[in-house]
Amino acid sequence: MSKRILIFDDDTDILSICTYILEEQGWEVQTSPHCNNILETVRGFMPDVILMDNWIPDTGGVIATQTIKKENDLKSIPVIYFSANNDIQSLAQQAGADTYLEKPFDLNELESVIEKVASKKQTA
Length: 124
Known about the structure:
CATH topology: Rossmann fold
Order of helices and strands: EHEHEHEHEH
CATH class: Alpha Beta
Strand content: 15-25%
Number of domains: 1
Distance between the termini: 17 Å
Structural class: alpha/beta
CATH architecture: 3-Layer(aba) Sandwich
CATH superfamily: Response regulator
């Protein structure tokens, strides 16, 4: 069974590092440097997990996450909010994200956070 992850971040370095690491872990990865047409993007891929950057153009991560979480068919997809903001916890809560990851993160952290939400989703 392939696990799918969708990463929204406008930092191409982060996208390529995350893609590389996660593909090694057996994930199918799709990335987007913006969150325009976010519902179409998410529905087109139907990921098991979403990684959402705070500073994603155009609307930003909070609105993008809220948009996903308002949709009945998408709201159960876990969203991991990630940002270098020091108030990331409150941003993630405001967005309705399932959890958060502070940047810069180490790759073990990334993997464990993703595994945690992915396994929760499977048992839900």
